[in-house]
Amino acid sequence: MPIANSELIINPDGSIYHLNLKPHQLADTVITVGDPERVSEVSKYFDVIELKVGKREFHTHTGVYKNRRISVVSTGIGTDNIDIVFNELDALVNVDFKTREVKEELKSLDIIRVGTSGAVQSDIPIDSFLLSQRGIGFDSLMHWYKSDGGDLAFAKAVTQQIPRSKLHSTPYIVNCDADLAKKFQTVEMINGNTITNVGFYGPQSRKIRLQPAENDLNQHIADFNFEGHKITNLEMETAGIYAMSKLLGHRAVSLNAILANRATGEFSTKPKELVEKLIKFTLDSIVAQ
Q1: Is residue 289 predicted with pLDDT exceeding 80?
Q2: Predicted TM-score of the model (pTM)
Q3: How is residue 194 annotated by DSSP?
Q4: Which secondary-structure segment (H or E) carries 31?
Q5: What angle do helix axes 79-94 and 238-248 make, rounded to 10 degrees?
Q6: Which residues contact 4 (CB under 8 A, 6 or more apart)?
Q7: pLDDT by residue (tens digit) across 40-53?
Q8: CA–CA separation, 44 vs 37, rounded Å?
Q9: What's the number of CA atoms in the CB half-sphere (13 Å) around residue 224?
Q10: Dihedral sign from CA coordinates of 109, 42, 68, 63
Q11: Are 115 and 275 in contact (CB under 8 A)?
Q12: Could you tell me how far CA 141 lies from the centroid of its own chain?
């Protein structure tokens, strides 16, 4: 059954609605970044850049790095944008744009998030790298799709140990792809469990003029312990990336440059250099045998 024009919107030039990409322009390995300006910070290392496409906050460069074809895509901030980007990435490889039907043979993409984050444990140093073994969704994205709900036991522990308003969505937990994660495991890489929330200020207990509804949220997060697993950091995309990847059959891992430590109040004095280091590490890990 062809997908209706209103559900899968294809631009007059044959590109998908938001990303402005055509199917052949997307590589099987995709790096996602939040900031559109960070796309060129990744692609500057490419040996060849095939194309540069930009629309709104969604910018894509596709090229070749050490014989590996890679696309780097900016998602903007938040899981609402992740919903757009991941549905469209999947459509580019798994829907025939001519017939508007899902292909019989589905393709799985390798998707690596390169982003920034703030630690909630005092012993996690700023300027370190952290791999999110789990994404803990305080957003509601996964609940809008038919799913098994992720790791229900872990989610129950989060609900029991971290008091929040009944108006907030039920947490969901999704793991990274273990096989893909192995490519990025080094002695320096910290393994963690990452909360994804819907904002940067109140949802992460930051105070400027407005008072967060949950004043002790970060302390409850830091104190959490389920079968020896602690929560390590906060950011705004990882759980959505893991949820959408799992539902669509793609492999995903989230790599975090720890710029801030919320427990100690520290912030990196060299954020740009740290992100640059993570980008280079990611690219070299992707192509390593």
Answers
A1: no
A2: 0.96
A3: E
A4: strand 29-33
A5: 30
A6: none
A7: 999 999 999 999 99
A8: 12
A9: 29
A10: positive
A11: no
A12: 13
Give the tokens for residue 203. 């949802």
pLDDT for residue 166: 85
Report d(CA 239, CA 211) in Å as an integer. Answer: 25
Q: What is the largest CA-CA distance in the chain?
A: 56
CA distances from 43 to 50, 62, 72, 198, 276 (A): 10, 8, 7, 29, 12
Return the axis-axis angle of helices 271-287 and 36-43, rounded to nearest 10°: 50
CA distance 76 to 253: 17
Are the CB atoms for 199 and 217 separated by under 8 Å? no
Task: Give the number of other Cβ atoms within 10 Å of residue 180's Cβ.
Answer: 18
CA–CA separation, 58 vs 84, rounded Å?
10
What number of CA atoms fall less than 13 Å from residue 175's CA on the CB side? 10
What are the tokens at 140?
A: 């509601």
d(CA 25, CA 271): 31
Question: Tokens in use for 121?
Answer: 């444990």
Residue 50 is encoded by which pair of tokens?
């095939």
Which residue from 81, 131, 31 is spatially nearest to 236, judged by alpha carbons?
81
The span from the CA of 210 to the CA of 259, in Å, is 23
User: Could you read off the pLDDT of 128-153 as tens digits, one per residue?
Assistant: 999 999 999 999 999 999 998 889 99
Give the Cβ contact number of residue 262 at 10 Å. Answer: 22
